[in-house]
């Protein structure tokens, strides 16, 4: 990685607090002083237990919420500049697309919102529908689709702008074997083309297979940032599984708590 | 932002919202209600009628005519309900037009449209639906504007179906073609657009369909009351010639409220004025205090329209500003 290339994403001591309770006087700190970078050409895994702050981190990256403190930059520019979002593709964990649209119409709609020129959208839509295996159902209402098909459609809309940074928030949720293979192929292709991805997943085998580096976040704090291999190396130098490595950061497993 | 790309995005936002409305029950309910009114008009027939000069049930001095002569025959629902009337035939058609313009479309239609479309924005702003949408580079204000225009376009089409349908049906049955009746299409759409901007603000603030329905309907009635209250204050001396004059504070307050808020009664009065329905008894303009305001030439339609639209613009701006800072 060359040092003169700007990181695709950069978090600098970012804090995010949500207001809670009566009159919003209570504060819940979802992200606590997080700093990291995503460089071109790498796939970064984002791991952590439920309610650790992973989704908030993703939302901050996509300007879906604003940081309470700290600085976020995308492609070297402050996150206030929404134009930089045109270089990002995003798959949400629970996508709710308009049920009355067809996949073709949905992709054209989202392509328009990505501020892509109309001819480019028209050219890419059939190619992407073919790629995610929905070409033969491109004119059916989304209302008739299964969760897996909706996830594949979500992946297609995220790829419309040929993103430099792909943000996948639990993309394998509800996907069958073919769908999971598709996600893997997309991520490997992204890496091969010198582009990046932030991959949020609870499926550790996928993270092990695809990610170059991992971020581990627990209770809003970044507890590990580095190569996967290093995380899986024990203090004595022996190799351990990712699951055992993560166990060190996570709270006491539910199975080991007194009944 | 690239202008063609922004326009393309706006076009899709309008189209999506329009399609959302078309596939909802609201479309069929509103179409059904318009259809009922059109069938009602097709079932009307008018024969005979009194010949009067200008004022239908009033003498030229404004006093009601004593013992109206019932020389006309009106049948409703394809002859099922025969009745008589004492107006000139053309005035009888005006009477029906005023019922449709003032009460069915101007009042019930606007309220029904507000209730029916209140859920569109909260639905689009739910986290699951909005997250991917708002993660796109399109500015949030543009997304809100597109959604707003989509709903307004949908109501505009419904208004066109209603006004053109009832105009054609009554025209065919009575051979009275009041082209100005079609001014109801832009006026009703504008009336709705002003109040829907408040619904948009509620949607952004609460993201709840129920809050939007209750808030919008309540707001419409409050505005109607303020509109009527200010007109009442304006002609208080005519309505209560023997009474004490109103305190200055009351008239000032009613004036401020009137000019700041949208004016639903004025929208209806504007349509009645355009149709020259001043003397038809069923109109809003024939009821106190509006009648006295019109008689004293104190109705200012252009200023009223402009300030109502200004309120709409302000509500939309407030909604867009809030949405821009909203955490998802």
Helices and strands, with pairings:
The complex is a heterodimer of chains A (259) and B (328).
Chain A: E1 9-20, E2 26-38, E3 43-47, H1 54-61, E4 69-74, E5 77-78, E6 88-91, H2 103-113, H3 118-131, H4 147-159, E7 165-169, H5 177-192, E8 196-200, H6 204-210, E9 213-218, E10 221-227, H7 228-231, H8 242-247
Parallel strand pairs in A: 3-8, 3-9, 6-7, 7-8
Antiparallel strand pairs in A: 1-2, 1-4, 4-5, 9-10
Chain B: H1 3-22, H2 25-42, E1 45-48, E2 72-76, E3 81-85, H3 89-117, H4 120-124, H5 127-134, H6 140-174, H7 184-206, H8 209-234, H9 236-239, H10 248-260, H11 264-274, H12 290-295, H13 301-325
Antiparallel strand pairs in B: 1-2, 2-3
Helix pairs in contact in B: 1-6, 2-6, 3-6, 3-7, 3-8, 3-11, 6-7, 6-13, 7-8, 7-11, 7-13, 8-10
Report what the structure shows.
- The complex is a heterodimer of chains A (259) and B (328).
- Chain A has 259 residues and is α/β, with parallel strands linked by helices.
- Helix content of chain A is 31%, strand content 25%.
- The termini of chain A are far apart.
- Chain B has 13 helices and three strands; from the N terminus they run ααβββααααααααααα.
- Chain B has helices at residues 3-22, 25-42, 89-117, 120-124, 127-134, 140-174, 184-206, 209-234, 236-239, 248-260, 264-274, 290-295, 301-325, and strands at 45-48, 72-76, 81-85.
- The model of chain B has no long low-confidence stretch (mean pLDDT 86).
Major sheet characteristics of chain A = 6 strands, mixed
The residue fraction in helices of chain B comes out at 55-70%
Strand neighbour order, sheet with most strands of chain B: 1-2-3
**What shape does the CA trace of chain A take?**
globular
Strand content of chain A: 25-35%
Largest interface: A-B, 35 and 32 residues
> Structural class from helices and strands of chain B?
mainly alpha
Straight-line distance between termini of chain B: 23 Å
Q: Which structural class do the helices and strands of chain A define?
A: alpha/beta
Shape of chain B: globular
Number of helices of chain B: 13
User: Helix and strand succession of chain B?
Assistant: HHEEEHHHHHHHHHHH
Lateral strand order in the biggest sheet of chain A: 6-7-8-3-9-10
Number of helices of chain A: 8
Cα end-to-end separation of chain A: 50 Å
Oligomer status: heterodimer
What is the β-strand count of chain A?
10
| Low-confidence segments of chain B | none
Stretches with pLDDT under 50, minimum 5 residues of chain A: none
Q: N-to-C SSE series of chain A?
A: EEEHEEEHHHEHEHEEHH
